Amino acid sequence: MQKSEKAAESILEQAIDLAKDLAPTLPGNDQPLQSQEAATETDPRELRAQLTDAEERLGFVLESIKDCALLLIDVNGIITGWSAGAEKILGYTEKEILGQPIQKIFTPEDNAAKIADGEMALSRSEGRATDNRWHVCKNGSLFWAAGYMRPLFAFETDKKLRGYAKLVRDLTDMKEAEKRMAELNAALETRVTDRTHELNAAIKDLRREIDQRKAAEAHLQETNKFEAIGRLAGGVAHDFNNLITGIVGITAALSEETEDPYARGELEEILKAAQKAAELTRQLLAIGRQQIGSLQVINPNDIVQEAMPFYKRLLREDIALTTSLDPAVGNVKANKAQMQQVLNNLLLNAQDAMPSGGPMEIRTSSVTLDASYAQGHFEVGPGPYVELSVTDHGHGMDEQTLAHMFEPFYTTKEAGKGSGLGLAAVYG
Q: Residue 347: which of 393, 322, 401, 311 has the closest Cα?
């Protein structure tokens, strides 16, 4: 039982003890006083004195209970007793309310549902009825109340119903406090939810910042590694280039002076090898950033279409090379030879990854890189770009291979069968 119900029950029990003595006089008691006197075998004057004393004591109780409304109700639901607390809470004076039905203080909705009749029926069958509901004051305002009703009997022996005693306690302040507490709890839950979302967003931003910092550190390490390789390659290439220049010059002079066909053929082979070595030297110088290839405005579609006959001769017959070129793709400023070199290397490596042959495609398209992509790829900034890609159906590269794909001489092939993808040319 709730605290409010216990308090109501305690107060009401005191009033009921007094009301029991008055029950024979309540309207609805159809038993003659003489019969009551005979039944109780009590002197009429003594009985009347007892009733008078009970009336006085009940009147004192009704007047003294000011924080609760105490009502006496006959068997027909008519109000026959009204405490000072009832007048204070409900606004009706005793003169205004006595003789009125108990439904007077219930809401129209509860009256339509016959709540008052249900309370009296429950009180008769169970010995009491409790409820928490809205009641109506004289001015039409509503208040939330805890109600407690008990039946009244004329005598303990005959159990003849003489009416009801109902206690109503105003819990509007408690109801408002509960409502306010619920609103505060809802506001707190909303605030906690909002702060949780903010915290999750902050954690997400922090993780993204950590990932970006790790990517920046990895990019810096990669850059430092390439710079070290470039310095080494540049130093070697300069010395090697000097040697090759001498070899090419002397071989060319000897080839012009000799009349021996065999010797001239051998010299031409030496010259071809020296020229290949010179090309390798130029690549090493490009990697070392000590030689910048000539840049020009070119269209990637033109590069692909111009080289397609060569690519088809370069690849095996079981490789079906096709193109998907975007006609609206824009021009780029790049080194033509390096672009062709990258494409050559991609096609050859793709072919090696397809020992059983299959389709292969060169594609160009226009793309726009946003700021979020650029944050994770420090070598580019946001904006429009041209994408040049080679798609194959080979076994692909694992994460370890992908991590080394731009290194100049990294390869997964056996010694003497490859020197890398050649993608390092994009850095030079």
A: 311
